[in-house]
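Dear H.,

Thanks for agreeing to be a second pair of eyes. The structure we're designing against is below in token form, covering all 236 positions.
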């Protein structure tokens, strides 16, 4: 119980002293060439290309590099991009279920209006990334490293941050529903502007986050349950 009390206290202390803001990506794409077609290639090198409404369903682009690219309206159901590197790129309206982005690197990337489910982003490195709009169900970010990441105006249903490290991560006007923070490390994580926040596990890992007074009231029952405190009225 003592550890839980200390962790809750730390959340309040962070709120008093402030939190470092995430550095957002500044993506400036050069003139792009249209993708010439064909399937993704493992360890392929894609530079300065525009992928419009391309069907990548079930393809294998493991280890590929995307540099200065725009992917718009692409289907990525069961697409394997394990270990891929996505750099200085914009992904707009991508959709799919079961996409494998495990151990990938996303740096200076904007992900806009994505519709994804069961995305495997475990062990990935995300740096200066904005996820804006859209909905992602059952996002797996276990053991991932997120630094300077902003989730903005999106819906995240049961995201798994187990044993991940989140540093300078912001949740802005987004819904964070049923998040799992088991074993996660949070540094300068700002939840104050989230539209909705709830957790299934790991609420004791919120040390290093900043929340609003209203969120503290909403989470009071969760904190109490974690500490083993029963809340009973005088007539109960």
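And this is the sequence the design step returned. I haven't edited it by hand at all.
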């Amino acid at each position: 119980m003592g550890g839980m009390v200390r962790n809750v206290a730390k959340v309040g202390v962070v709120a008093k002293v402030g939190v470092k803001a995430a550095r957002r990506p500044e993506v400036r794409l050069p003139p792009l060439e249209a993708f010439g077609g064909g399937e993704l290639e493992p360890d392929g090198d894609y530079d300065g290309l525009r992928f419009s409404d391309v069907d990548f369903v079930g393809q294998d682009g493991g280890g590929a590099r995307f540099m200065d690219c725009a992917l718009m309206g692409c289907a990525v159901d069961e697409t394997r991009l394990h270990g891929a590197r996505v750099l200085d790129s914009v992904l707009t309206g991508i959709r799919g279920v079961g996409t494998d982005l495990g151990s990938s690197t996303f740096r200076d990337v904007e992900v806009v209006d994505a519709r994804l489910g069961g995305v495997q982003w475990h062990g990935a490195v995300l740096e200066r990334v904005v996820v804006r709009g859209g909905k992602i169900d059952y996002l797996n970010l276990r053991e991932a490293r997120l630094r300077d990441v902003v989730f903005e105006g999106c819906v995240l249903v049961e995201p798994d941050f187990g044993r991940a490290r989140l540093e300078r991560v912001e949740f802005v006007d987004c819904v964070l529903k049923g998040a799992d923070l088991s074993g996660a490390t949070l540094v300068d994580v700002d939840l104050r502007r989230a539209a909705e926040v709830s957790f299934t596990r790991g609420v004791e890992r919120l040390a290093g986050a900043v929340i609003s007074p209203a969120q503290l009231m909403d989470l009071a029952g969760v904190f109490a349950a974690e500490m083993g405190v029963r809340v009973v009225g005088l007539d109960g």
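Two observations from my side: The chain has two domains: 39-120, 126-227. The two ends are 24 Å apart (CA to CA).

Warmly,
E.
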